[in-house]
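Input record (one chain):
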Amino acid sequence: MLRRIRSDERTKLLPVVILTSSKENRDLVEGYSRGANSYVRKPVDFSEFVAAVRQLGMYWLLLNEAPPRVAWPANTT
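The corresponding structure, as predicted from the sequence alone:
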């Protein structure tokens, strides 16, 4: 999926966060190498999960600086 997102001019700058339960280092490395902007291991406990998602949302909404808007090419499909 990341390959498709990054190969399309309309979505290549879209922030991508991998939210997973995997603790495999190879999954983390593969996610970043395919263009993920962040890799978050989700907690098993539901209340901890909710808190983590809330913090993640606050980061992307308030702290992260998005790339400037650009004129996207016309959709040719």
